[in-house]
Known about the structure:
The protein is an alpha/beta fold. It contains 13 helices and 16 strands. A five-stranded mixed beta sheet has the order 6-5-4-7-10, with helices on both faces. It has a five-stranded mixed beta sheet with strand order 13-12-11-14-15, sandwiched between helices. A hairpin with a 3-residue loop joins strand 11 (212-218) and strand 12. The longest helix has 25 residues, at 306-330.
Amino acid sequence: MNFVQKGLSIGGVQGFNRRVILSAMQELGPCSRKDISVATGLDQATVTRAIGVLIEDGIVEEVGLVKSGRGRRSINLNFACSGRSIICVRLQRRSFSVGLYSLSGATLDETEGQIKKDQAPSQTFGQIAECVDRHTDRHPRIDGMGVAVPGPFLERDERVILMTESPDWQAFDLVRALRERYGTIPVYSIHDAKAAALTVWREQAKPSGAKVLLYISAGQGIGSALVANGEVYRGSLGLAGELGHTSIDVNGPRCKCGNHGCLELFTSRIALLRDVREFADGNPETTLTSEANFADVVVAYHAGDSLAVAEVERVARCLAQGITNCINFVNPDIVVIGDEYAAFGPPFRAAIAKYVKASLLPSIFQSIRLELTQIGGDLVLKGTYLDVLAQTFLTNPREEMIPIQAAGAGH
């Protein structure tokens, strides 16, 4: 994990050492100065000096004594739980969320707002700004703001180029609007599926020994992200992961992206509810109605309602086709399905696995674990926090890095 940026000047060594130390802390969790020294290759004197500055700046705090070798006790360190914070914003087609996190990752506050159909983006921005203002008024030390948006999203240009069912967002620059309103706070943007994948990698895939994660975000939209050894693959424009706009039926309906038979047209929450409401109207064999919402469908599915089971099974079959295409192309060792559809639980996972198994060579299927997310809370907001933390305090994963020996040992 020892990295240095190309062209790093001597004057920047101390600052870089602090980033290396913070990256080690992020990797290790609560740890001692000695643990950091071993992980980074920096000598203990360098670590001690850097930690002193980080504590003084309110970035790191001491979190208690732990036993070390030969019965000795050492002081553990962690990111600060108070004083400084990060704001995260998540935009969806029908809702938005704003979360406030400590540098240690603790959720300090989380608010969700609904977006009415055909509501102007400027009105939604006003709602988001009200939530953000509440945090900036109460917490003066905001180190960064992260914005997670649905795709297709060009991360390089920070532009939403298509939001199915919400086309007006293509003409509204949310990231720029936030930067203009909160000029003193650094604002970073990320695709929502990539943000969620960071959370899933850190909390579910990596602890299980996985090397390559394919994360599927299934809810108001369909997205995906690929994480290999902790790094999110973004592609040349930051557009990688648009599973929802890959075709599963070349003769299917034309999508607004220009393609035919896009996966999202058949499997998004919007599509599921549209079909459920259509078939529920006047249907005596279901408890669902033409006014059913997503929570109603989840409850009915678990209760064995015939319409809910049939429609969710159809979604599972279509998702399995998209997942199979991804497996054959990127060869992951774990596939995790998350977002709203995780609420359908093990029967839904089993249905997807059944169709994936039927579409793959046996040896390939046997090498893959197919799971639902096992993590509570909003994965996208959590991942957005991780992204802001990395870009603000850690060795930046989006910058070109080359491995060398730890920089500046003894400085």
